[in-house]
Amino acid sequence: MKLRHISIIVGVVLGLVSILAVALCIGRKEASVAISVPQLVEPVTIDTLSLKKGLSPFDKYFRKAGRRHKVDWRLLAAMAYAESHFRADAVSSRGAVGLMQVMPHIAESFDVARETLADIEVNIDVGARIYRSMQRMLQLPKDIDNYDRMAFTVASYNCGASRVIDARNLAEYYDDNLNDWETVSDYLLLLADEEFYNHEAVTGGRFGAPKTTIAYVRQVMERYDKYCRRIEE
What we know:
Order of helices and strands: HHHHHHHHHH
Structural class: mainly alpha
Number of strands: 0
Radius of gyration: 30 Å
């Protein structure tokens, strides 16, 4: 009888041990699964300010396009970083392509086939050509401060020259300095307001993203300043 009781107790203990072992095994498995779940990360980009030499892996193309189109190559590099973080394969949700985020239909207006925009040299060259065309459209005075000239053109690259022209027209209408970017950026903000986008001085209508353009200009010009302090032209 005692032996039978002992064997029952031993059986129960062994059963409990087995259950505990299984539980521990499952716990370890769940832990290992939790650890092995991949984490979402941002796309790998190039921290250009940490490079030992140059500004990017594409400096020769920026230099070449800058010489050809008379644009400071360091500004082109700063724009490319703002546009794509130097990801040559970047494609936006709206279809903009490459380092300079060129829209295919814009490239075609420069007689550049959309299929060639994946080529780094072509992409940068088209970006420089767009920049220069924005300058021509703006018709800025020759004696304008160089910072303001670049800021107006960079803004136009982002939102189109017509928006910047509208903001300058508003500044002129209200007897403000239409050649100062900081002043005109305030009027750019007003183009989101019905009172102002219906103004007689405005031809392009409502502009829904002035803050985006202003932030873009700030980012580009700050990086350009760092690039200029790092590398002489």
